[in-house]
Description:
- By secondary structure, the chain is of the alpha/beta class.
- The protein has helices at 24-27, 58-72, 89-95, 124-139, 179-187, 198-220, 261-265, 332-342, 379-385, 387-405, 417-426, 431-434, 455-462, and strands at 29-32, 38-41, 47-52, 77-82, 116-119, 146-152, 159-163, 166-171, 222-232, 253-255, 268-277, 301-311, 320-325, 329-330, 345-346, 349-350, 357-359, 364-366, 369-374, 437-438, 451-452.
- The strands form six sheets. Strands 3, 4, 5, 8, 9, 10, 11, 12, 13 and 14 form a ten-stranded mixed sheet that branches. Strands 17-18-19 form a three-stranded antiparallel sheet, with helices on one face. The protein has a two-stranded antiparallel ribbon with strand order 1-2.
Amino acid sequence: MANINAKFSKNQIHVRYNVGCLFDIPTGTYYSGKDGESILSGGYPYLLGICGKGNTYKSTVTHYMNLAVADRYMSSGNIIYDTEFTVDQPRLTRLAQAFENLKDKDLFAEEAPVLGFLDGLTSGNEFFEMIKEHGKEMKNGGKKVHLTTPFVDPKSGQSITKIKPTFVEIDSFSQFPLDTVEEMYSDNEIGDSKLNMEAMQVARLKSQMITQLPLLTAGCGIHVTMTAHVGKKHQLDPRKPPAKELAAMPADLKLKRVPENFTTLVNGVFYCSGTTTLQSSKKTTQYPVRPGMEKENDQDLQIISVTPWRMKGGASAVTFKVICSQENGLLPHLSQYHHLKENKIIRGEKHTTGFGLNGNDQTHELILCPGIKIGRTNIRKHIDENPKIRRALEITSEMSQIFMYWDKIDPELRCTPEQLYKDIQEKGYDWDVLLNTRGYWLFKEQKHPQHFLSTMDLLNMRLDRYKPKWCKPTSKKK
Length: 478
């Protein structure tokens, strides 16, 4: 008798796009590629919510994620829908200067813009229909709109192909403008009883749109990030504790002007909170752009706590911190460095200077990139000028997150950065070569000068579980 399960069997790899800056590991899962490499599906999913109270940099985080995928991946579109009239195009151009493939481009060129841009003068209804129409075109585009990922279908052993992605940023969904609601406002004066139904009408229409998004995104290669505002929940009965909307969400908070299915149908929700100015003990710049450029009472650097309130396929209720510059946006490698400095105890194991750092609090080295003295006053200079420092920060911070957040990791993979560096070096590998790599996956149709090498690949190389074909050991250290 035939096994009916086979008729319902499809690959279960939900491809996510790597964006870096501490976002990939908490949201990701590693899968094996055709050559035994470990590929992380983590970062940017089909549907993502980024929420927070006012001035918590949720828009800045959203801009970073969308610029990161625009920088790295072939796409059919990168679209920003500014519902609040707050997205400044010159600012987006400034933020793009941090990305290698975007910094010299005119993002909003008339003939071939890198980013599509619409504001709230285009109604949400019209915008949604435009996205749906684009989705239909991509779904019916056949092989010419498909790209080959490095992920492998476990059933057929073939590379998984995906429709060329479209990345959409909606900032914000709380203020998403709807035709019917605008008509209510135009036809009635403020205070009119007919406007009392506005909130219910908004919730109903937005709920209908959210309900359509999972099929639209997964079926048409569209990936959507939406920001949402968070406010206090007012409880009329003080003796009755308010119910939580999500397990990791404080009971006294609520998402404003978004329907309930916003939290149930999205792949993940990041909560941005705890915004504080990052300064040294002397109230000067904690991490100056260059040594000697500290400023008194400098307000530019802000540290933001990010908590996944909900994350399908990833860790929820863990909190990590990222650094935002009011002038230059999210700073990924500085965030990784600060993360290493802050996490001196991981799973009970002490790291005196910080995970992956050797020295003291003032002057130290990255264990994976020794010989270069770094500290708070010169780290930004080294990040800007030295790609090996950037790569070592990426690998070390991902190692720390794997060990911190993943409970079911093979215990044999756990090691210190010192052990990783020493053991791989003793196998004859050159760390200068290993640091001249990229840690994020790309479509096979894309050309890149660097070989792919993930953090999990390095952990497996230490145990002789993986040997990259492109890199042979030269001579073993004696």
